[in-house]
Amino acid sequence: MTDSTHHRAMSSINDFTLLELDRPDHGNGDGTLKELSSTSMIPRSTLVIVTETEKLHEDPTHGRSGSSTSLVASLSDFDFAFSKLQVKDWDMQTFYSDYIQQGREYLKETNNNVIMLFESPSSSTADSSFHNKTKYKFHDWPPPVSTRSKGILGPCRYALMNGTSYPAFLRDGQAPDGLFAHWQKTVPGVVVPTLVPKVTDNDVVYAYLPVEQIQHHVNDPNTHYHLAGKDAIHLMTQKTTKLLPDTRTSRPCVVKTTHSMGSKGIFIIRNDDDEAEFEQFLNDSGHPTFVVTDFVDIARNVACHFFLHPDGEHLTWFGSNENKRLPDGSFSSDSYLEWQDQEKLKKMQLPFVEEVAQYCKSLGFWGFCGVDVLFDSRGRGYLVDINPRVTGSCPALMTLQLLRDKYAFTLGLFRRSGDINYYGDAQSLWKQVDEYNFANEGKIRIVIHSMYEAETGDRVRINIGVYGTDMEDCKAVLNQFAEPKREESP
């Protein structure tokens, strides 16, 4: 090991100066600033401003706006007063690209060559539509065997709710055969999107995550990358897990690479064997930046999805989903969508969302966002993930609302994680789904959100939702059509 006893946290924000403000709105503060050391990294009670300057200016309230990579122009960018968000529910008529168009109109942006990009970049392989090699590194190690499904499943899943104000990028330029026709038959009010196979230098891109090769982003890519980091969470809120300086101070502890993708780059360190496994990961993956936090015994795992208007005050709420605890103590990777719990979940999560929204506003970031909150057995919440983008289960929540409006469906179960397959070819998939939906019209419905047929033709990778009024029925249908990859016989 690089250290015989532990690994010290390595933050991706070490290139920035952290300024701690003695806030006057706290009653006895005088508004002075002091620089924090990179080792302390995060304050415990006061606001932190992040800049790229290595040294404080003599007058720290001026002079930071000239840099193209500065996150904060001046202290005046921050609104220190408590901000009460104006939250409204999704209207079931406005879709992803419509919100971006409305936001750009509000900002008086004139370039209408805008593309919605829902494919994530990769830093572990060049076999990807977009390869972030140097600046905006995302930790997706080990690299996928193939990025074909990655370039289709995610982008098509989000394209279902893209709308038509702006086209969506898809590397093939067209959806898999039968997918759009299936959406039109199964999702009330769906608007089939336009797809484009490339991004030009003249295009402005609303990116899932910042991409090094793209010239013009809707949001500043430096700010976007900062917000996507696990080490940014502690700058937004105290309602989160405690940061630890290393992996030895307290065990068990949790280690997360700052810009992890999916569930990659996350470790629970209970003993020296776990430490050795983490050491091997660091060596194999190029020593990414990471944070260490305390371990919390979790009772509930809840995610919410919203759109933040450019004014930073108006927020559209798409809903919440939950990953349920299984009998063995682990959490299901399926997203449980339960309409009767939506208002309760919103009230539970809004205190966390308000702080995230205020921080995003201070940095000039707007658009779609998802927040993951874990709750312990005492009901205490911990904000553990900020996703400054359209998030995975959001299209399924929107689909449930459209089906609820037509059929009074109240439940949904959405499966997208891992290698989920329908065993058979695409033609058989469409035939069986059509037959099932026809036989169960008004009772339960299968929606294939996205699909990709493997070259062998014996299985189809799918993102699938089952919607109805009985969760056990939804689960049975889901297990019938969507299986994990089968182990090959020796």
TrEMBL record:
Keywords: ATP-binding, Nucleotide-binding. Residues 225-415 form the ATP-grasp domain. InterPro entries: Asp-Met_ligase, ATP-grasp, ATP-grasp_PylC-type. One of its GO terms (molecular function) is metal ion binding. This is ATP-grasp domain-containing protein. It comes from Phaeodactylum tricornutum (strain CCAP 1055/1). The lineage of its organism: Eukaryota, Sar, Stramenopiles, Ochrophyta, Bacillariophyta.
